[in-house]
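Hi all, long-time lurker, first post. I run a small reading group and we've been trying to get comfortable going from sequence to structure in the token notation. Rather than ask abstract questions, I figured I'd post a concrete chain and ask someone more experienced to write out its structure so we can walk through it together at our next meeting. Sequence below, copied exactly:
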Amino acid sequence: MSNISSITEFLLLVFADTRELQLLHFGLFLGIYLAALLGNGLILTAVACDHRLHTPMYFFLLNLALLDLGCISTTLPKAMANALWDTRAISYQGCAAQVFFFLFFISAEYYTLTVMSYDRYVAICKPLHYGSLVGSRACAQMAAAAWGSGFLNAVLHTANTFSLPLCQGNAVDQFFCEIPQILKLSCSDAYLREVGALVCSVSLGCGCFVFIVLSYVQIFRAVLRMPSEQGRHKAFSTCLPHLAVISLFISTGMFAYLKPRSISCPSMELVVVVLYSVVPPALNPLIYSMRNQELKDAVRKLFLYILLHHQ
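-- Answer (accepted) --
Happy to help. Here is the structure in token form:
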């Protein structure tokens, strides 16, 4: 039995056999990565610089943008480098770091989205208590809890996964190191401990999902009872982008991990993993800015400021 300590590197999935297609993949990923950097960077800068956006909702949005940047920066740069330099290798330490940081950012993002649903629930269903329930101290504590929970989840799964003996080689059937793919390399009876940890995480994730659903049931009931059409429009404009981001995040993640084996194939798995690991960080800034006039105005002011100071 070959042990994990004997493996010094893993081989990641090759995007294409021909050099032209590899460079095409590099260009595509570079475009997505730059779009994510630009979009999330604009949100970070706009929220930090515009005092009108120093509210709990935008504080959590700033956290989400940071997590999106971290998530996409964990996976795409290595994939782009491998496509550009025509290689598959990633070191053992690099693979462990990818697993840890990807899990950290993706878990913390999910918990942050859960906290954001609570923020919207209090803002719309309990507006008179909003200042006391979601004050600056409470916001900092909830954000710290989301980041801390993501960190603990990442430590647990990374330690469990990389303590398993591997018997099935070192070829990972994905463009970055992902726990399900590494578990496929483990000995048949050695992965049960990690499966137990996954069950705990899935249970917590289901709890967050139920909380999000219940929050939005209450939110929509409250919004539909509003007498003012303007009030309903304003409530929907702050809630619908958040709901769209949650739906994109959860649906792609669930499809990636819960799809039947009968429809599983390497190209399908690649598309699904790109959908849940790469697309949301790039699309989230666009989703949030489409219906949010305050954010649009802040970004517009930021562009004007940059243009005026470069003339």
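A couple of things your group might point at:
The two ends are 67 Å apart (CA to CA).
Confidence is low (pLDDT under 50) at residues 1-5.
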